[in-house]
Predict the 3D structure of the following.
Amino acid sequence: MSDDQLIKIEEAARNPKNLGEMESADAVGTVGRSDCGDMLRMWVKFKEENGRKVIDRASFQTFGCQTAIAVASVATEMIKGKTAGEALAMSGEQLSSPLGPLPPMKIHCAQLVEDALKSALDPTAANPTPAAIPSGPTLADQITPAGKVKITLLPETR
Ligand code: FES
């Protein structure tokens, strides 16, 4: 990873955009990776624009690495104004493109973001049962032993 790219990731992770729960979200997706133990939840809100239903805004929370935070930050900006189908068509590589090409060991961090987005927009693709939109507790609250959270563990081979 170049110094320039490292700086971009550090800056995006230090001041992430769209960090936090969205109470009025239309969709939410939560995914986790069994290989690194990181988790990411993404909320999406739609709006009507010129007769199309497009993403108004998206937010995220994560127990993830710096790269996952950075990718989620830029990705939640990039998908604004896109339809669900357009956003679903975006790969982890596309979602992380403002940060430059990620090194092989960090590609799965972008895939975590891609999978959370897919889980939110097309729950049947990533989750057998759509996750309910949380009505109060944060992701951190829901991971307490007494809490409940639906976590989809993704294959390690991706
Ligand atoms: Fe697991 Fe980055 S190390 S998401």
In short: DSSP finds seven helices and four strands in the chain.
